[in-house]
Structures are given as structure tokens and as C-alpha cells.
């Protein structure tokens, strides 16, 4: 039987560790670390850990020990509010005074963490100790109306316990910032239910129900204090540790999305995952719960935040190390050809290689969206040939399933990555000719077009132009991913898995091909306006309506235009008339 949070923490001291939000003397900022020996009966012993009374050494001693394995993170002694934050908190406190409320207003979680790390955060979540968020939002709205101000964007997001969203959340917009309001909560679990009974809780109970200790800190707006009810949130933040307030397995089974959040924060801040946390994250019960209990949209959102973040390689490596790869990136049934056991390791290696190449080439060469989809393209590179049959027996790329079903990402993401993958063969066939400036060989690649009328000396420019028109702004992404597959002295997949990338050579290939494309004048070739339009073509073909023949000649005239960059419309039409006349005579 799972224990309630109230029972699990009843032996904890009631007083949290406190930090003032205004300037503090150093002595006060270390108030949490004053005792030499602290007797402690761990509440965690009630949920699976040894039920013993222990004496922990002074946190000063523990901190020195921790420094041997974790670098110190600079944590501010005070939270400095922006002018906007001051105005928001002032309105909320005035609401309390206006209605003579005794409610304690606490900013929870990420905002407190980021502020202590000296980072700005615009995600303000406020926890209330004695009323629902919707009730308080109504009070704020009424108070603002009495002063002539107007609240914007009022909304209530209902709870959804089936998807591990246990709290109703009220939202409003103040001074162009969204503010979320929820009540402090305590959760009780019945023996045979994964859905808790919700009730109002204390700030301490709420802190222990948070996903991580570094996210369990509160900033009390009423008192201007930072509150650390777990008594280790500040220390874990300082020493870069990702730890759950309660035993990790119970925490993850409560809300399995916390596994991915732990990974994301560990990667984002370059913090170390706790060993017990890693064991719990990798256990079958938690993996089953993650697959069954959490909506695919929420999983996809977490993955997108990792891929778009500052440490995507570390995040994907954590997912692989914790054997979560196929739980997150689930495949459709009956994939052909069968996916190898090492595929996920190869995926992680390609993400690493592409990330390092982006840094070597220069991040400024890629937009945020290009970088994001470049990493997805690398992640799913080993799956680029994998397909499955849909309900209509149509063969669909497995990557399409992962984006649309496993991650519930937008269709355009799937389309872009699949197009990048489709372009790789063509890029790989062109790279040798671009690098050597020799005639291009196209016999081994299906271009989907005929180029019999293209002069040999112009074929490279024509083929490259058509390729870039297919993938448009993502041609540099496709080129970068192509370099990962381009033969070097080391081609074995085992060498890629071992992260032996030969990045300098691949960067050299990228830069050489990029320069050649720019020199050919093809950098924005998809914006090229055709010299000849459909009406001109129909006149020469003596057609009254369009059709496949017109589309065929549109491609042919575009080929001519790419082969003759200085050509005019008249010259293109003359060429078409002559070529068409020869075809008629041959027929």
C-alpha cells in the first residue's frame, strides 16, 4: 500500500530553510548550514529506504564532500525582482489587502530556481495555501476593476487525472506576462489506484510532491523569503544535482513525465542525475507507466524542449542510457526493414556529430528552426529507409509515424525531415563532382526527371538547382546531414557509434560544397522566377488546356534556364520551339 504524503513526511521539522529576497549578509545567507550534527529520522524510510535514525554531518562537511564529484554552481544570495515583477506582485498583495485575505502567495518551481541562478524567467506559477486558483483570479479581477485596470486572458484549465494533470489551473495576463494560479496540494493514493485523491496541503507537503528538489523552492511574496521545505533544494542547486524530494520510483509512478523532466533539467543545467533516480527511471514499471499514462503530446513537448535546448546531445544520451529510447520514439508495428538493436546508439551518435558540426561551422549559419530540424534529421537518420503499411496498405516512412503519433508534433516537422532524408542520396551523388569539378554521374540516383537535353558541362548546376528547389531553406541542413554519411577513411557504423567522427574533414566537405553552391549562384534558387510561363508553353504546343505535357515542358524550360543563367525568355522560347519541332519529326 502506498503511503500518503502526510504520513511520509510527518517526522520532518516544520521550519523551512529561508533566504531573504533583499540583500543579505553572508552569515544570514548560510543560515541553513549552521548546525554541526543534525539528528534525522528520514521520512523516506517509510517508503522503502532503511528505517533508521542517523546523524548527518554538518552540511558544510557534506558540501565539501560533494565538491569532489560536482562543481559548485553560483547561486545568488537574493532574488532581484524586475520592475514588471514588482508591479505584478504589488497588485496581488493589494488584492489580499482589499479583501482582507490571509492567503499566502508563493511563486513555485522554475521561476525561483532560475532567479537564484541569475537567469530571467517569464513563467510565473503562484501557489495558494487556502483557495483555488480560479477563486483568487476572480478576486484579482474584481480588485483591478475597482482601480480602473483590466485583467486580460482569463482562463481555467481543468484537471485531467488520467493524463497525470491533477490540478485545476487558473491563468491571467498581467503586464504582458502570463501568470498561473494553483492551490497547494496534498495527494493520497489508494492501494489499487494510480489516480490520487486531491486536497489542500501545506507548503511543505506541496514541496515534497514536486518533481525535483531544485524545483521545490518557493518564493513567498508576502514575506519576500525563499523557502526550502525539503531542506536540500538550495544545496542540490548549488552542487548541480538532479534529485527527487521523495523516493524516485514513487515520484515517477505518480507522474511518469517527471522522468523526462529530470533528463531535460539535468541536460539543460549540466547537472548530475542521482544514481537512485537513474535506476528508477530505467525500471520496467516506470517505462510502462510513461508509455501508458502520459499523453504523447506531453512527451513530444518535453523532447522538443530537449532538442531545442542548449544540451541536446546530453539529453539524448540520457534517454539512451536509461533505456527509454523506444518508449519515447515508439515505432509502428511491422517496420520494414527490421530495425537493428544498435539503432538507438547510432541515432545518439549522429545527434552528437551534427551538434558538433553545427558548432564548428558556426551557429549563425543556421536559424533556430533549422538547427532543431537538423538534430531531428540526425536523430532519425538510421530510420530513414524504414517504412510501414498504413490502413490503406500504403508504405509510409516510419519517421512520419514517430513525429505524428509517437511525439504528436506538427505535420510540417515530419514532412521537412522526410524531405531532408530523401535529398541525401542526391546530395551524396553530387558532392564528388562539386569537390572535383568533374562531370556529374547521375545513373545511380533516381532524380524523377529526365535531363537528356541538358549540356554535360551544365548538368551539375542544373541538378544542384533542382535539388535545392526541393528542400529550399533547409539545403544547408541537408548538406550537413549528408556529410555525416559521406565516405571518409572511417565508414564503419561502429566507429560512428564510438563517436569517431572526423569532424574536421566533414566540416571541410560542408564548407567546400557550400562555397561551390554560392559560386554557382544557387543559394536562393527556389526564388528564381521562370523565364517562360504556362501560357507561353501552351501556345507553342498549341494546347487549349494545361496538363502533364505542360508540366513536363515547364521542367524542361527550367532546366534550360538553370543551364543558361544569362539566357533570356526569347532564347528559351526559341530553344523550346526547336526542341519540340525535332521531337515531332522523330515521332
Automatic annotation (TrEMBL):
Domain Poly A polymerase head: start-end pairs: 105-242
GO CC term, one of those recorded: mitochondrion
Biological process terms in GO annotation: tRNA 3'-terminal CCA addition
UniProt KW Transport keyword: no
InterPro entries, per database record: NT_sf, PolA_pol_head_dom
Pfam families in alphabetical order: PolyA_pol
Any one GO MF annotation of this record: RNA binding
Keyword entries, A-Z: RNA-binding, Transferase
Highest rank taxon of the organism: Eukaryota
UniProt keyword annotation of Protein transport present: no
Family membership noted in the UniProt record: Belongs to the tRNA nucleotidyltransferase/poly(A) polymerase family.
Protein name per UniProt: Poly A polymerase head domain-containing protein
Species the sequence originates in: Hibiscus trionum (Flower of an hour)
